[in-house]
Amino acid sequence: MGATDAEKEQSVYESTAARFDAAADKLKLDDGLRKYMRCPNREIIVHIPVEMDRGELDIFDGYRVQHSLARGPSKGGIRFAPNVTLDEIRGLAAEMTWKCAVVNIPFGGAKGGVVCDPEKLSRGELERITRRYTAEILDYIGPERDVPAPDMNTDEQIMAWMMDTYSMHVRHTVTASVTGKPLDLGGSRGRREATGRGCMIVCDQALKRFGRTRDGTRVIVQGFGNVGSQAARLMHEAGYKIVGVADVHGGVVNSRGLDVHALLDHSREAKTVKGFAGGEPIDPEEILEQECDVLLPAATENVIHGGNAARVKASILVEGANSPTTPHADEILFDRGVFVVPDILANAGGVTVSYFEWVQDRQGYFWSENDVNRRLRRIQVAAFDDIVRYGKNHKVNNRIAAYMLAIDRVAFSLRHRGIYA
Ligand code: NAD
């Protein structure tokens, strides 16, 4: 049985909103605050004119949604994709608010996007889109206001163009205006591995609860991009046994453990894990149901649903991807006693090190990789403990506990700041 149509169609906005409501009910949040926190603070829609290489003008739609400015500037990525919608950006912006609050960093949530197909754009066109988009939202971004970062199809180069455009307008270099920049342009050490490293940190904490250690703990990773490949590499190096990996093209399993370094070499060459000789091939659809102790989905949303949640063998689920589990699957996993480390905690390593990048840029003083990793560990371990404690006190699962904790922190700021009239 696969995902139901309703599950497949459930947008990030809908599932985030449903989880917000469930947590707000448990918190007995008053109606006024609930209405306030449910809707974004600001939504910006721009129509960007860009001279294309063929000599004609095209207009691209762009969005920036700032969900919350209650705890500090807003923070969140910018995606370039043909199917970007305002609804999707709205949902992702709200999720960023809860993610920043869970790890207790002084940001609210935002997200942005430009409707374009980067595969069909030249480098010059991409640069002109980036610069004009930045110029159009310029009054609303900046180190004290809203700090963009890379997301789907945007990278260090695009962040460098955004930072330069912002800096040209304000007439001086402002590295803290965006994060995810190249290292020599105010980027942070450890940023590339941060999300994968964060997954390992919370997995270590989950293991401790079961009185287990890393050694020989069997892990399956779905997705071998930035998050999945770094998590697999770091966990392999730390003593975990990676027994299965899949990407969109294919999968590979080996109950004795995969040689992740060789797999990385293979996937660099072949652009997929498919065809790796160090294990047995497997259909990517089946990877989530294989024998393992830890399942780490790091690909895309809604992959664990009502149709397969009962067949997940892992006792620990570490959500590297955003929204990999549908609310229906959540109930099944919870009933079966699977220990879920929810996405807003598990993959918060990326935004946490982005916060470190912003701090370092503002200080003009850069930390060693060890310092970055040590501080990341401290923040994620504290957040993990907070959530487990919160869940125990309120008798709710980890996901609802994470949302409750986050909503409580944002509500605290809103109550104390009051409503400006
Ligand atoms: P990526 O594009 O680098 O990699 C995605 C990987 O998933 C690829 O290997 C792709 O082949 C695979 N994939 C896609 N669909 C699949 C499917 N149906 N079955 C199996 N494999 C599939 O993306 P990423 O940056 O690694 O992000 C992965 C997830 O983590 C996303 O949900 C993203 O929103 C989330 N996330 C990423 C970061 C970050 O720092 N990159 C931070 C927080 C959350």
Walk me through the topology.
Elements: H1 5-9, H2 12-27, H3 31-38, E1 42-51, E2 57-66, E3 74-81, H4 86-102, E4 108-115, H5 123-136, E5 146-150, H6 156-170, H7 191-209, E6 218-222, H8 226-237, E7 241-246, E8 251-253, H9 260-270, E9 280-282, E10 294-297, E11 316-318, H10 327-335, E12 339-341, H11 343-346, H12 349-363, H13 369-394, H14 398-417
Parallel strand pairs: 3-4, 3-5, 6-7, 6-10, 10-11, 11-12
Antiparallel strand pairs: 1-2, 2-4, 7-8, 8-9
Helix pairs in contact: 2-4, 2-14, 4-14, 5-6, 7-8, 7-12, 7-13, 12-13, 13-14
The structure holds nicotinamide-adenine-dinucleotide.
How is this structure best described in words?
The protein is α/β, with parallel strands linked by helices. The chain folds into two domains: 40-185, Rossmann fold; 188-421, 3-Layer(aba) Sandwich (Rossmann fold), CATH 3.40.50. The chain is built from 14 helices and twelve strands. It has a seven-stranded mixed β-sheet. Strands 1-2-4-3-5 form a five-stranded mixed β-sheet. A hairpin with a 4-residue loop joins strand 7 and strand 8 (251-253). Helix 2 (12-27) crosses helix 4 (86-102) and helix 5 crosses helix 6 (156-170). The longest helix has 26 residues, at 369-394.
